[in-house]
Amino acid sequence: MVVLTPTVLPPIADEPLPPSGAGLPTAEQLDPQIAQALALVERMLPQFDQWFPAPSSESNIYSPIDNVEWTNGFWTGMVWLAWEFTGEARYRTLGERHVSSFAQRAHERINTDHHDLGFLYTLSACAAHRLIGSVEGRDAGLDAARQLLARFDPVAGVIQAWGDMRDPEQRGRMIIDCNLNLPLLYWASAQTGDDRFADAANRHLARAARLLVRSDASTYHTFYVDTVSGQPRHGSTHQGFSDDSSWARGQAWGIYGFALGARLSGEARYAEIARRLANHFLNRLPDDGICCWDLIFTDNDETPRDSSAAAIAACGLLELADILPVSDPAREAYGRWAWRIVAQLGQAYLAPMEGSNAVLLHGVYHMPNKAGVDEACIWGDYFYLEALMRLRRVWRPYWL
């Protein structure tokens, strides 16, 4: 039997702020960057009207795919964001058409045997229900939430990430990405009054806090829990440099996921965890503020950066700043860090108008598999747009 001692996290480190004068942006500073991002989204519309972008690009070009991947919700989320930014009807029309595709996918169980149903349905169907009152979106979101709930193992107390629930190699396996899938369950509870959804999310979040967060506030990518005894087994990585390193995108999922978890669960301790994860992340950034693909790399060598992880982290920092008390000085610090990251992405990481059909370049999908290295990643595109929306407006995220 494995017995874990209570996690004791280090004190919060003082974080270096961006250079003097690099405060939160004014509308005049941000609007050109938003216009440039929307122009890149506009360029994607003809190719991805009936199709979806592949998870990552090849030579900076996304291939068109059917609605079969875990990443398809990010493109639909970009469409809804573009509609909110512009009010142009063609974005709403496309978003509604996507909702019908997601409804069919949930009904027919097309590649839904995984925990990424939150990524798929929160940004597509649930967003449509919130924004335009889509009944089809609500029904599709609840169908997906019921499938996600079925992946909860009550003994292990976790939502199994992938694979057949009877597969001994996958049973009891959680990954940090799932923190961003939990909002679908909280939404389903709010919609139906059925506490089972939120209870499963709460139990998984508690397990994630205890098992995925190390004592130095770095994170495991994945952790295994015994489904017979409920005892922790071991942590490892799936996409990071090593089992003991901190995969940058996973750390970013942790920052954003625990900040959202604090708001959705009402548990203030998750805000403290998000804060510590944020400090660990920020203390390991290269000079330009854009993380390497794994946080074991902190210098300015030739290690690939991951713009997609940086965009996720920026959204997480802004959510964290929003939930902290107004009197907390870290609130402004995290906001300024988010602005610095977003500004740098806009200056040095945007795709050109010619020769690409993406928004953000220089991301990393899966380094161990050599997939999508120094390429665009569709979730990076989405979170970049979300960060711009958060900085520009008082806005309720689709996750809430």
Q: What order do the helices and strands follow?
A: HEEHHHHEEEHHEEHHHHEEH
Number of domains: 1
Categorize the overall geometry: globular
Strand content: 5-15%
Secondary structure category: mainly alpha
Helical fraction equals 40-55%
C-alpha-based Rg, rounded: 20 Å
CATH architecture: Alpha/alpha barrel
In whole angstroms, the N-to-C terminal distance is: 38 Å
Q: What is the highest CATH level, the class?
A: Mainly Alpha
Instruction: Name the assembly state.
Output: single chain
Largest sheet: 3 strands, antiparallel
- How many β-strands, per DSSP? 9
Unreliable runs = 1-14, 16-21
* Tally of helical runs: 12
Strand order of the largest sheet: 5-6-7
CATH topology: Glycosyltransferase
Mean pLDDT figure = 93
How would you explain this protein's 3D organization?
49% of the residues lie in helices and 7% in strands. With 400 residues, it is mainly alpha-helical. It has a single domain, classed as Glycosyltransferase. The strands form 4 sheets. Strands 5-6-7 form a 3-stranded antiparallel sheet, with no helix packed on it. Strands 1-2 form a two-stranded antiparallel ribbon. Helix 2 runs parallel beside helix 12 and helix 3 crosses helix 4 (117-132).
